[in-house]
Amino acid sequence: MASLSLPCYADEFLLRPEITFLNHGSFGACPRPVFESYQEWQRRLEVQPVEFLGRHISTLLAEARTRLAAYLRTAAGNLVYVPNATYGVNIVARSLDLQPGDEVLASDHEYGAADRAWRFVCNKRGVRYINQPIGLPLESAEQFVEQLWAGVTPRTKVIFLSHITSPTALIFPLEAVCRRARAEGIMTVIDGAHAPGQIDLALDALGADFYTGNCHKWMCAPKSAGFLYARPERQALLEPLVVSWGWESQNPGESPFIDYFEWRGTHDPAAYLGVPAAIDFMAERDWPSVRAACHALARDARDRVVERYGQALPATEAWWSQMTLLPLPPCDVAALKARLWDEYAIEIPNVEWGGRQYLRISVQCYNGPNDVERLLDALDTMLPPVRSSS
Q1: Could you say which residues of the chain have pLDDT below 70?
Q2: pLDDT tens per residue across span 79-88
Q3: Domains assigned to the chain
Q4: pTM
Q5: CA-CA distance, 118 to 125, in Å (whole number)?
Q6: Closest-CA residue to 275 (of 52, 60, 55)
């Protein structure tokens, strides 16, 4: 693998140059060639909407799904496009036949919107939604699985987990979880919002029953491009949030799964059709090398913050990729984040988790060592380093 120096390809992104943008993880950023492809699809729609949406869209979406499925290493019939991972979580949570007294087991590292979706459904149905504590630091997959399984009971019907967590930026060992859950008859639902593009992903091999992810984050696709994957034997369990022409279709497609979720009323499909351009963008730029360079820069930032403040790390670097936590001493981290933006134009989110304060840094190919230096210089001003007394 060739080594890359960061920043690389920075001029291909639309980000304002005066900003130090260290928050790719929240909404992503779309490079110019991908954004231009997205806009071209919108123009093609508008010059003849009836022809585009009435005659061509099924074929165009099938082609885009085929490209995404190959990238995710599954069959095109196993996934549908959805606007985002939260939308996919809602589909699954509302569809499953959960009964009063059943339990859905999650970790205490889950994304707030997904937690809310599950609690909403579970509260209506008399189902318990449990956020099982997963203590830090994480040291092995076996340790993680044993901590999670401490919350499993005979009433556990579903395990819901992030692939890469939003608050703690950790890569959970899902293969081991899915394997054990399947052996015990427990369905697995995975929130993969941060995984596609940031780590290598093979959906069939992973073994989850359902997996929903974003393309607009780490794949750099246009906004509102996500997907929902379902194993073939689980697809009949899912019901559309919006019932439209795909239900009782007069022109059935390859499966009810595709029909139900592809046809949900008039919407702009350009973001989905732009996903192949994002896949091409990564392939043409040796993305494994990009990820490795980004990981190295994130590691440098993390190590230098640890050196300054002496706070313990939540996990070793094997547990994260391009996004990681920077542990801070006790402080008003929300006020710190606000000052970083207001005074230094540094965009980086804050995290309070487990009674501790962090910044969550995301490194993408447009970032470079100067971005880390600006962050550290700002922190030195606002939060002076803890100096050794020796």
Answers
A1: 1-3, 387-390
A2: 999 999 999 9
A3: 10-30+286-382 (3.90.1150.10), 34-282 (3.40.640.10)
A4: 0.96
A5: 11
A6: 60
